[in-house]
Fold these 4 entries.
Entry 1:
Amino acid sequence: MEYFAGSDPKGNINCFTRQLWEEIGYSVDKIYSKIWDEFANNKTLEIDFILTDCDQAAGEVSLIGSGKPIAAHWGFSDPALVH
């Protein structure tokens, strides 16, 4: 299962992301902008991989949760600012 969250959620899902998810068949009725703390406090969720995708996130404190996740960074401008 995939989970998406950020350290500083903007409160909305990017319209291009929503459209793409709908086109490929992802259910978008339950997606929302969320902070990664929702997952950090879940002791039953084992996180295998953390991918940061924003230049600002590369230097931020990483998500802490159960398991020993592999981390990677794919740097580009903040995707939440693209409209």
Note: Helices lie at 15-24, 37-40.
Entry 2:
Amino acid sequence: MGITSAIVLYAVFWFMTFLVVLPIRITTQGDAGEVVPGTHAGAPQTHNLKKKALITTGLALVLWGITVAVILSGVISVRDLDWFHRMGPVEPV
């Protein structure tokens, strides 16, 4: 795995984790009973983006580390995911 692949993989994990963490423990304006005129009742009252970004960074780092370890160790390879046998036989080294 190259450095560019590792960075792109981390970015994918970070954004996927951020989208999962974002709606957790959110207080909407409708829940708080203080809807600002011109906004939707489902708009966040408090969003805590800095805290959620830090949590996301930690979780993404752990998930990325596990994935990189699996890829670099060779436990799972691309050939393991070739369910339709399209890659052909392995050539001897």
Note: The first helix runs from residue 3 to 21.
Entry 3:
Amino acid sequence: MSGTVRQQKFARLIQKELSDIFQRDQRNALGNVFITIVDVRMSPDLSLAKVYISMMLAPDKKAVLAKLDHHKKEIRKALGDRIRNQARIIPELAFFIDEVEENAQRMDDLLKGLHIPPAEPE
């Protein structure tokens, strides 16, 4: 996580509140998908929040991302209702799929598939 302390604190607040929103309020809109907010990165002026999400039980992650983009105004409104006393402006939300877990799993699979002959005794 990079940025100023102010950006980091605001990003943690956004992450916590969005997690709560997805867990409670937006469950019906997204179906049976378990969404985890992995990271939130704020722009220097705190007007844009880049939200990185991980999805479990989602066969088509791009479709879920499209649903999130479709419901972005509702999610931002719910976020505004929660943080209106703590923030002067409610940031625009941009959702991205976090692929760190998938990349790590692919690397593990590649490493397990390597055939390394045993070292020859000297």
Note: The mean pLDDT is 86.
Entry 4:
Amino acid sequence: MNEEPVASSWSGGKDSCLACYKALRAGHPIGYLLNFISRESRRACFHGLEADLIKLQAERVGIPLVQKEVSPDMKKYEEEFKEAVSGLRARGVKKMVFGDIYLLEHQNWIERVCGELRVEAMEPLWNAPPEDVLNEFLDLGFKAVIVSCKADVLGKEFLGRVLDKPVIDEFKARGVCPCGENGEYHTLVVDGPMFKKGIRIMESETVLKDGFWKHWFWDIKKYQ
């Protein structure tokens, strides 16, 4: 078994969680979870989750979390991404896990940037049928809730729903990628085989936000 620590990109959502878990089961010792948060909002990029909520999630999983503040500018983001990965490489990391499924442009970016840093990019979910990915996630016993969705694709009634097979059927009926690979929705994993203890959400608020696109966001206010 490879004893060098492996890092795993961590958004707090289902795909990064499943990719990390599959790498662990394949014998790769995950030494760090790497999470990027917005410098302006102190929330996780794309998913919008509070930095402290991601910290709690990592504690419940039991893997050290490295959080890196980044800017919205793509050129600066790449520099900051490289800084974070270089810092992990200094700790002995030579491999990093990502949860991409089929977005070639992003996978090419990951391969290029990691290649420049002499870090091997591992993609355990790559090219798997999205519905198979989601079914595997559920069949393994993970539990995730929907925390955001594109307003022109999915309504606010999806917020807070537990991801399950009936929801998958609803996605398919609407022509939505089951995994939301194009940003149709995002999740927070709250329990599963990696967790020592699940996360309980106690208070939340529904918010409509403008950005690159309008999206509904489930702002989690209280949890334990």
Note: The chain has six helices and nine strands.
